[in-house]
Records
---
Amino acid sequence: MNVEECFKKRLLRKISPDDEKASQSIKMAEEKLNMAKMALEKEFFDACIIYAYTSMFHSARALLYKDGIQEKSHVCIIAYLMENYGGKIPYYLINSLDAFRRERHEALYGLEFYAGKEDVSIAIKDAEEFIKVVKRILNA
């Protein structure tokens, strides 16, 4: 799905830009990242994937709030980032967000999902980097 379709289907909607919500989203992203790290210590790998993805999701959402966009679809967030931040956020991080979106879905709803320690380590590393990149964009 592309950004235009997301707006047509009202999965993305224009709102007033909101720096306070953007800031709250970054704080939430950092909290979820810390929860992912705690889950890793306990070897709760599925929870780790869920928290790392949620951290990246809230980071991405901060950019949408800054731009005056409300989301109703995780897929549309990724489309929006690709179209509007592809030059500022490395593509591999946007692709990682999408990959961990799918893994989060499998961890929550799938019957045969297994997250390994290596997957979790990558998820946490990418979530940390995603937050740093988004903070840089927000403070520019």
Note: The two ends are 29 Å apart (CA to CA).
---
Amino acid sequence: MKTVLIAEDRDASRELLAIVLTSAGYNVVTAIDGVDALEQFAANVIDLVILDIHMPRLDGFGVLRQLRTVPAHADLPVIALTASAMAGDRDSVIAAGFSEYISKPVNMSLLRREVARLLEKKQ
């Protein structure tokens, strides 16, 4: 079973994402902010990460930068979630090293498809 780490500072959003992915057959680990995400990542074997871009203590970009400093994590699938869906945002997120970009409110069918696609691609 693949494990997905969800880092989202809003409780309701984090819980909904966890329910959707658990029901899709994934093991889910959650984090309340970027610092917690790095701690959870270190404590678990993670196959894919979903990062809210705007989080307290350490944002999604900061988490991604730290993950990408480890060569073994260069190909780790990381999805960016953001409510600020402006023209050009997707390009800047992908250029920063994220594998995919999903805007909020999250389309759960799209999320499930993208998680499955990225995990299949990783194998």
Note: Residues 3-122 form a domain with the Rossmann fold fold (CATH 3.40.50.2300).
---
Amino acid sequence: MVLQIDGRSIGDGFSTYLIAEIGLNHGGDLTVAKEMVLSAKAAGVDAVKFQIFKLENFISNQSEYYSILDKSVLNEVEIKDLFQFCKKNVISAFGSVFDNESANLLNNLGCPAFKIASGDITHHPLINFVADFGKPVIVSTGGANLNEVLEVDAILSAKGTPRAFLHCVSLYPTDISQLDLATIKLLRKKLTAPVGFSDHSVSSIVPLVASAFGASIIEKHFTIDKQMEGPDHLLSADPEEMLLISSGLKTVFEATGVERATPIEPLEHINNLRRSVCAAVNISSGEVISEDKIKFLRPGTGIKPADFRVVVGRTAACDISSNEQILPRMLA
């Protein structure tokens, strides 16, 4: 399956789709959010993503995270302004949605895709609601087992919803030893949808490795300053790191190329690297060529070393000088 988000194709055969997860790093400040959008675009990402929710529909005020989230909420007017700003500056923007009301808001704003966060992979009512928009849905798998992932795939498949799944570890930050990027290969075997990776490590190299493992989408938290107040800044890529990731992903895609069973090098180049059966000494016409009378020299325009036994035990049909290639016409 190939996804289309704002005309950009995502899946096997296409370059890795890079999402800058601004999330809540704007701290509830619309001006900062806009600055992050422009900085992410300059770093070469394909899309920016935010976390959109109504606090009362998402988290209890008894939660230890309530006050953090409360400080980072953008109101409806600000969200509309932000998404219009993204459209004006020609950068794809969508959001992780955590309630129906927020999903409706983004859909009405023409949001081209939706994200389901790891914590909501078992929130089938929300997934069904978002799927009914008929737009691409990207699902993070942090904390989920394979059966839970397959259940969501079945829900979205039954509705004909374009979809992708991101291998994810929802520990913040994720230790390198916990990433298990090989899971990308497992999900690619089990799912018919594109598979990507949502990175919560502090590494800028890991996204490139994930791409080489077959990730069609990379999501990486993004900030303009790691020292800003908030829980996600330290594990986020700053503009310089995101630029390295975006350029690195292009290199990985170009280097990956296609599967092929024939060499790409021209024959002349190959022959210059290979060897031929040659005379190790002067051989006279009528002389039997023994193994100690041959050696193997470049270029490889004569008899291959692998076929040297077609020469050994044969009689020379002419004089052969030392270091000269022994060709089939020289054998009686």
Note: The chain has two domains: 8-256, 267-330.
